[in-house]
Design brief:
The structure is a homodimer.
Chain A lengths: L1 H5 L4 E4 L3 E7 L2 E8 L1 H9 L5 E8 L4 H9 L7 E4 L4 E7 L7 E7 L19 E4 L4 H9 L7 E5 L2 H6 L1 H8 L4 E5 H8 L4 H10 L4 E5 L5 E5 L2 E5 L13 H16 L4 H18 L13 H15 L16
Parallel strand pairs in A: 1-4, 1-8, 2-6, 4-5, 8-9, 9-10, 10-11
Antiparallel strand pairs in A: 2-3, 6-7, 11-12, 12-13
């Protein structure tokens, strides 16, 4: 019985599966496995049972489906349609590797993506709505049999400007929103991140996660704030998928522990940072799909170490000038 | 005896005293008290006995000397020369308040600043060489009767490019260098901050502090790294002096505690961040010159709170997927 329960899908992700062609200061690669749902599901598979909902074309390689399955990812929701898979190509700036320019986007079979959840997925306690059209995000949420324990959402500037009202409708109904600094400033029209987070929480979500790349992550939950450091990385090879890998670690940890209080959210944020740090260390998901739990734990401990300083105990005071 | 010792100068700062005219997105102010030595000495005065070495003109207001003295700052080294005080005017970007453009610089009496330390200052155990010509920094250090316990240095892009060799000569002789992200990338020609810090440590200093404004501070000390969060601030009014106020808290704390190990350096970094956070909350040094030790302690505790997460204990492991 316990064994059978343990096989149930705890997290469902709805997003993209793609082939990416990427140029970074380190080099160029074509036809890399990519897409938000791919990175998210691989990352969260280290912690929990995840089901992927995405669409690919007939060109999608068998070995990539096998890769997902060897990570224990449920691929029933990965629809294979006649046509080509979503293809994206982009170039990362040599001056600031966090800045990228899209060269080409071919939506292909993704252009009429219309996700249908199977009955098991509709009971999933955790749902991650990756960066897709907010109307699709709403549609997916409405398919759930009962309100999941936690619904998290990612979005991007394109939807913030082109589908602002739809985005606000889905924001009303979810728990956690994950954004980068630029996106939350765009959405809230607030430069100050604390005010921006407050603004977004007023739209619905109780938790706001602001991803700042090499500058770490800010977590806002009601009146509480947590600032997570980033892991010092010797060399960022390819930032693609870092945000979705973060989300995979974040949601995966929460689904595994069911600790949805502030302490749990803080650890989930740190684990998200750990998973993001693996994602940037190779082109495509090569690195993040070949790590071990020992690797993950080691980086979690490093983040504890580099952010710890001795707090003041209750009676202690800051040394005072003798004047 | 103890009382008389306590009055000795523990920290000497050599830098600028100025009148600033500043435009920020919040408003404009003219003839604000400013300069690196001013911000540094006010900030460090909350922790220790500081002596200021700087030059001003006859126009320097009596009330500003009184302000320093009421903070217990030793002003014997504040030379008053015929002529006008150093004046700087600049404008901070409305899009990114951390970006500033200099409108006008009138060095006035500062143009032939030639600091001479009095006998007491030459025995000071802590020396802060604020952002001035690296040849002057070397000259000041050579005036010390014995090598201070700690010599810290700030610099800027201008000296990195125009006096690179002089800067490298003084870097060989000091312990701590404080820089912002752009400056250390400039000096090291390394985009990666961990590598940049390593590069600079190879030039001499055992400790490198990288100030990242709203993104917090990185401390490198040998092989050890510490990542300090920044305090969430509702509104940055004027960033001028934040870096020097950081340095004042950092060095002031170390001088007060004499705890120069990594734990002490980490707390000093946090306290530096606290002092920087006060500096940006008013035009000029109004706010940082009117705080209490209770205010400082409160913010230190906030930084402990927002950066703390439960570490893994030795036996604990990250929750593992049940697959």
């Amino acid at each position: 019985m316990i064994h059978s329960q343990s096989q149930e899908t705890s997290v469902v992700v709805v997003g993209s599966a793609a082939y990416d062609s990427i140029a970074t200061p380190i080099g160029n690669k074509t036809d890399l496995l990519g897409g938000s749902a791919i990175y998210f599901s691989i990352s969260s598979s280290y912690f929990t049972h995840v089901g992927i909902v995405a669409v690919v074309g007939k060109d999608f390689l068998k070995k990539h489906i096998t890769l997902l399955q060897t990570h224990g990812i449920n691929t029933e929701g990965l629809e294979i349609k006649t046509g080509k898979s979503f293809r994206w190509s982009g170039v990362y700036s040599t001056e600031d590797i966090n800045t990228r320019t899209t060269l080409e986007t071919n939506l292909n079979v993704f252009s009429d993506f219309s996700p249908i959840l199977n009955p098991e997925y509709r009971n999933s306690p955790f749902l991650f709505l990756a960066n897709i059209d907010p109307d699709l995000q709403s549609n997916v949420l409405s398919q759930m049999k009962k309100r999941p324990k936690m619904v998290a959402l990612d979005t991007m500037n394109y939807w913030i400007s082109s589908k602002n009202q739809s985005l606000k409708r889905i924001l009303e109904k979810i728990d956690v929103v994950l954004m980068d600094e630029g996106e939350i400033r765009d959405l809230s029209k607030e430069a100050n991140l604390t005010k921006a987070a407050q603004h977004v929480m007023n739209l619905g979500p109780s938790t706001v996660v602001i991803k700042r790349g090499e500058h770490g992550v800010l977590l806002f939950h009601g009146k509480s704030i947590f600032s997570a450091p980033s892991l010092p990385i010797d060399q960022v090879i390819d930032p693609t998928g870092a945000g979705d890998s973060f989300a995979g670690g974040f949601i995966g940890y929460l689904a595994a522990t069911k600790d949805l209080g502030f302490d749990g959210l803080k650890r989930a944020t740190v684990l998200g940072s750990v998973m993001g740090s693996f994602a940037v260390e190779s082109f495509g998901p090569d690195k993040i799909s070949t790590i071990t739990h020992v690797d993950i734990e080691k980086r979690f401990r490093i983040l504890s170490d580099i952010s710890y300083f001795e707090p003041l105990n209750e009676k202690e005071s800051i040394p005072i000038s003798l004047s």
